[in-house]
Amino acid sequence: MKQSHVVILSVVFILVIGLYFIQKRPHHVEPNELFEEVIPEFDIDSIDSIKVWTPKDKSGHPFHIVKKDHSYWIEVYEDGTSFLAPCQESRVKRLLESLRGLRGEERAKGEDHFDTFLIGDKNALHLELKSGDRVICHILVGKRGEAWGTSFVRKVDDDSVLIVRKNMLSLVEIWQERAAQNPSPTSWIDLGVIKDDSSEVEGVSYSTSDEVWSLTSSGNETSEKGKWLLVQDGAQISIDEDKAKEFLRSIFPLYAKSVRDPSKIKDFGLSSGENFGRFTIHYRTKGLKIIHIGKIDKEKKVGWIRDNRGVIFEVSSDLIHKIQTGPVLEKKEEASHSQEQN
């Protein structure tokens, strides 16, 4: 064989070997190419309905969050009726952020596998997101995956079972392997009646048809510097700033124990025409806020208040008593001190 032929064959051999290794080299795949879309990308602010339920729960009370007037509200059930209560915005946004753009990997296909993964229409947890009348997604969540941070899911009207790298049940506070009942709305309720601390408050007052008291800071012309002015029972009394702030700190921030059905407003002494109290908070930069003060149940040691949205909160009777009477101890101490000087 001529030397030139040997050279040509050697070159061809090298090219063949090179092509073989090029074909065998792993192809670079973007991570998202490995997974199927379960929930599309969406604008979080566009979602105005989040509904979660399982047909295994016969109560007919789904976990339901709605958005209205730029705020989130959650459906609460009481004695066979339902009403909307304020919902914690930060938790809702964390939930939506966790769901947005969710992707999964197919593990099985066909209805024969539904029971294995607890992902049939009648035994799975349904999750639906809507924007107006448009359904953004409707997925079914089955049992938890082999690893804690995984779950089996499928899209409605689709028989592909997918695994996702997220504990879907824990997102709505279901800590079991499967969903046996609807998630509870209780821990999602925003019980913050007044979330601001006392540092921004420059005055408070309480009034009914029978009694009035007010407490204002030294910004008031009638107050001495470093003093707060208490007006009660027709008397004007100077209170040390520290004592006034101690009283305010005992009230703010104001968090409730629970919410109650606003349709039963008469039961709580808050309907129009009743002599409920008005607790007014004056802020340095945010204007004022008025809270209506209703009845007290002495036996249960609770009472009820209503904010400007019409939400009725259940609070401790001690808190209501403190608001109704005002800084009584401070008043007595200052009055006693004034008598000694005279």
UniProtKB/TrEMBL annotation:
One Pfam family of this chain: DUF4340
TM helices/strands, residue ranges: 6-22
Domain DUF4340: 85-271
Keyword Membrane: yes
Record keywords, A-Z: Membrane, Transmembrane, Transmembrane helix
Name of protein: DUF4340 domain-containing protein
Organism lineage: Bacteria, Pseudomonadati, Thermodesulfobacteriota, Dissulfuribacteria, Dissulfuribacterales
